[in-house]
Amino acid sequence: MSPINHRRTAGAALLAAVALTAAGCVDSGRSQTGDAAVDECPWEPDTSVEAEVSIGWQRIPNGDLVVKDLGLLEACMPNAQITWTEFDSGGKVVQAYASGDIDLALIGNSPSVLAMSPDNNLDVDVVWIHDVIGEAESLIAKDADVSSLEDLQGELIGVPFGSTAHYSLLQAILVAGLDPSTDFAITNLEPSAMPAAWSSDGIAAAWVWQPTQNELLESGGHLVLSAADTAADGYPTYDLGTADRTFAAENPELMAQWARAQDHAVGLIRDEPDVAAESIAATLGITIEEASEQMAGYTYLTAGEQAGEDYLGGGMATDLVNTATFLLEQGSIAQTLPDEEYASHVDPSAARAAAG
Fold first, then answer.
1. Largest interatomic CA distance in the chain
2. Domain 137-232 has CATH 3.40.640.10
3. 8 Å CB contact between 21 and 282
4. 206-254: pLDDT as tens digits
5. Which of 5, 17, 214, 254 has its CA 20 to 30 A from that of 135?
6. What whole-number distance in Å separates Cα of residue 58 and Cα of residue 126?
7. Checking DSSP bridges between strand 238-244 and strand 104-108, what pairing results, if any?
């Protein structure tokens, strides 16, 4: 496997129910947190789990949103105390781990490595792969004449620093034989701030994920490069499920139920995509058609696939090493762990439990 990377998080916010419109947005009898009502767990609930768990989530169209919207964790662990907190950048997730505010969270490869690095020295393990990123995370340019990175030399590009998007942007620049520090002006910009910067001509381009990417496209932008291109060059990116190591070790039954719920959501995405798209649309406040289009920009892996040697069963450790090497070369971290230690930050046990 080859190098990889980073991504998103920040700010607590609960979503309200989405009103049904002629455009097809989902309403549904969802609760005040935006979750759909679920009468029963798809399997035998585990009533023995009574732990409190704080979960960090992001507005990314994958199984995590399906799990949240359908209330699967609440249905399958009825005696657990579950809190969901929204983040919009990977750096914010790392901060939340550092302050002890979360136990589980979606985060990209790059922020995961930042958390593990001696700079932060956090006991955060990779326990799941929410998705493999493709065209859902891309470089969007404003000028219709821009067709390559070379056309953006000297221009200001917005990207959330420390994210998978930042990693992909820097890798793409290096692959193009250019220098990110001298050939471009790159600014740290959270997705939520991009539309305003875009409309005021504050940036010429942005490398960002959905749904912000669609906002820029609908405002006249066009796609120049994507994470699918950087993956083809040997630098894939992922949205990862991570866990505080101590919490995971102390709550194996909860972790098994969590992974089983995530695997169930992946099954819906792959086998009943319209059902999954409804949950994602409701959570993101978009139409089902838009949710389906966004989902097409990712690849989703089952628990069995993840537990194999290409991913959590082996390859992910190599990916973390490669990511750390890149971040060190770029000055994003001051020191890496010994190569063999990255394997200790990959725990496939929950995925194996979910795979049966």
1. 60
2. no
3. no
4. 999 888 998 999 999 999 999 999 988 888 889 999 999 999 999 999 9
5. 17
6. 16
7. antiparallel
Residue at token pair 């291109």? 229
Q: Per-residue pLDDT tens for 3-60?
A: 333 333 322 222 222 222 223 344 443 543 445 555 589 999 999 999 999 999 999 9
What is the distance of C-alpha 340 from the center of its chain? 25
Strand order through the sheet with 238-244: 81-86, 52-57, 104-108, 238-244, 124-133, 298-299
Residue 33: what pLDDT?
42
Q: Decide the pairing of beta strands 205-209 and 156-159.
A: parallel
d(CA 219, CA 100) in angstroms, rounded, equals 39
Task: Evaluate whether the domain defined by 52-133+237-355 bears CATH number 3.40.190.10.
Answer: yes
What pTM does this model have?
Answer: 0.81
> Rounded distance, CA 21 to CA 188, Å?
35
Residues composing the chain: 356
Place of tokens 């409190």: 52
Could you give the dihedral angle defined by the CA atoms of residues 255, 81, 73 and 18, in that order, rounded to the nearest 10 degrees?
A: -140
- What CA–CA distance (Å, rounded) separates 47 from 347? 25
**8 A C-beta contact, residue 135 and residue 226:** yes
